[in-house]
Amino acid sequence: MSAxxxxxxxFTRDLAEVVSRKLQxxxxxxxxxxxxxxxxxxxxxCDEFGGELIYVGKGWVLQISExxxxxxxxxxxxxxxxxATAKQFDLGVQAAYKRVRLFEAAEFNSRQGALFGDDACxx
Length: 123
Hints:
The chain is mainly alpha-helical. The chain has six helices and no strands. Helix 1 crosses helix 2 and helix 5 packs across helix 6 (93-111).
């Protein structure tokens, strides 16, 4: 077996396990039922995205909250004064910087198109 096959199988099993754990924790589903749903979700993801080359990022865009949007707007409006921004949002300066960087990185990435378009390989 190839290394990619092994990694794909491990990723699929891990995905099923993550879904199963979340269902048990959030919905108190029995382990067997949660496991079945987890495997079904993993299979659904394979059916939906199988054959595609996908980079799984760290979920920055999902971490952007409305508060982060407000924080960034205030940061820009204040002339990029991070100290004033941190005080306004009751954060430490480093935490405010982190939220600003996260927001700006997510915004930058959302504006970047594919280098060769969506259908570069003719698939």
